[in-house]
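Researcher: Quick one. two chains, 867 residues in total.
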Amino acid sequence: MKTAETYELQRDVVDNIHRIIATSLDIKDTYANIAAELRKVIDFDRVSISLVGEKKDTAITYVISTTYNGQALREGEPYPLKKSILERTIATGRPVIIEDTENKEFSTDAVLLQEGIRSRLSVPLRVKGNVIGSINLGSKRPNNFFAEHVHLLEQISPQLALAIENTILFRNIRKSEERLRWERDKLQYVVDALDIGICLMDRELNITWANKKISEIWNLHESAVGMACPVIFHCDDIICPARKAFERGEGRFHDIKVLTKDGRRRYIENVAIPIRDHDGDVKRVLLLSIDITDREKRIHQLSLLTQLGDALQYTLQLDKVFQLVLTCVTAGHALGFNRALLFLVNKEQDAICGKMAVGPSDPDEARRAWQEVSKYQTLEGLLKHVVEIGPLDSRLDIKTKLIAFSTSDEKETVVRCMREKIPLTIKDAHNDPRVTAEFRNALGLKEFVCVPLMVKSEVTGVIVADNLYTGEPITEEHAHILSMFAKSAALAIDNAETYKELEDKIRQLTETREKLLRSERLAAIGEMAAYVAHEIRNPLTTIGGFARSIERLGANNEKISTSSKIIVQEVQRLEKILNSIRDFSKPEEPQKTKTQINKLMEDTLELTAGYLKEIGITVYKELGYDLPEVLVDPGQMKQVFLNLVKNAAESMPKGGTLNVRTCVENGSIKIDFADTGEGIPTEVTEKIFMPFFTTKSYGTGVGLALSQKIVDDHEGKLSVFSETGRGSIFSIRLPLGNDERGRKRG
Amino acid sequence: MITILIVEDDKNQCLLYRHELSEEGYSVEIARDGKEAVTMSKLNPPDLIVMDINMPGMDGIEAMGKILGENNKIPIVINTAYSSYKDNFMTWSADAYVVKSSDLMELKKTIKTVLDKKKAS
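Model:
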């Protein structure tokens, strides 16, 4: 019988339970309180809550009061929904009462029977019309539950269901959060472990997220987040891959940057990838910075020989080849040594001599050189630059050129390398018996490598290389590549040397040929000139002779006398020309005697002093005081000097300065005649030594040709250097006799 | 009167020499080639011969050899357009060597010197 008191109690219990549920966040924590409240109004031995599992065909039960024995059915573990009491509750949406578990209507009845539970009550827990589970009571007595219990439980079940649903949702959120945090951490681990710089940037090219590696690659002292992309990558607008990625919206955009880090060049590839959000807009770009130095290094190593080969194709000059070879050893990543020195074997002197060195002479120069070199992105560009600027006269280079060893001096590293024909790597120059103190100190060597240059199993030279300024250890790989490279370099040097020899021979041949041609031409011209001269001279003699007679006879007729005088003068001029042609066509063999050139010069200047003064020409003399006597034909040589002085004077009709100089230079006497005249245009200088070429209305064009012929006959050389408007310098070089040279040296 | 034999193949030159040397007071004979000169100097030996070298037929050097072979007393002055014959030792037997020039002063001076020398010996 339901009394008012019972009713009151039931209402209190429902209120309490509602309060408990409302104040708790996780319903599970308050199950015990709920059970205690229920026990005030219902007699039961067990209360539990069953929920539909995450997998819809399972159920999970949470026991609030007495527990299972934990064998057949574990709390909190899923069990099959099928044939359970919950299945029925869900199916019908109605409460289920089991009067006696001995009937074993449900799969769980047997389990509960073992624990002494005889009767059961299950009330569905509904959220928005869906049954999410049930609240269940159990009693050791059969037939213990009635409709009033159902009624009571139905009063609390909606709120309980909601609280449970909230708890589940809350848990799910927590779980998601945890999973999310894990995913984020996982990503961070991966991103940090990667050897690639990664960052995200927004449309303003500001970096919103970045890993540590990116700071490391780009030498940043702090995180890249918050920085603007151009500040870090120094790219201009046109090539900026991030900008491209924003503009195009898809694809990958690459750019390679070169930067110097710890004195080494690094190649960094930037890859920008646009990222679309759900709306399909590109609001971010992912940028990867990859250090591709090692890859570039390999490529460089492979292409080094090819590039050197290419570079050598456009130069056969020995010096350039040396420089290219040494530049290859020091430039870029393939070899990248700080310094490289070249020694070549001189077979005639049985010596191995320093030829050239490339590299800085001190740390200051090293810094400047690296800055300079970093301007060139490719080895090709650098090599081209090297060819253009020519050799640098560095202190290192000069020092190297002063080094020479006898090829029998085996205690020298370079000689040892040459004789043993194998690369030598010296780790510690100070304590290695293979290095002499002299060699070590001359170049400040610490750790270095020596490789032989071989052509057809013969050593032609040695390359020495080291990393004095960076102190980078010389690895076996470095030494190996250097030896490989040395093979090509040796061939290139050998080629260039052969070429140089050939070139020298060709130059000699050309000179001889030109001289031969000149004398042949002179001979032919001479022959013809002699013939013409004779044929003209006879009638000329007659004409002139009679003109003189007429001049005498018509002395009192002014007209006749003037006219015949003109004939006489003109004939005289023609005869003068014929005389010079005669000289030219039949120059005599030089009668050489020991002559002091300075004396000849003084004589010449004395002879011409009056003439020069008349035109207003000042003469400056600079006569070498130590000029030895030479074997020349004084008469012929004086004729040459006279010719050249006359020539100079004629180029300065309004006066000027004539500088004459004599000196000893490179085993010959050099005699210069420098005027301040009009100069000779280039196209004319080529012809002035040709017989009968003249630019003067009064000249015969024989003077310079004859002068050259005479100088040629003296084994000398007559040349001209001229600058239009500034003047010309005619230079004679006369070889000192062998005895003279011997005397000088001795 | 002093006779001078001019050996010269050029007609106009002969005229000039005759004209100029006559004016100097010499008697001038003309031979047009070497052969004629040899004949003439044999028939009527002149006091001096002015000999050209390049002539058709017998040249001056050959003629000089023949003339001097017959009579080595006649002085000979070689008068040629070439200076190169100075190298030919045959010309060394001549008393003088004058390169032709429209100015006959040198030739006249040489003739006088040679004649003076002859007179003195």
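The first helix of chain B runs from residue 11 to 23.
Researcher: Thanks, that's what I needed.
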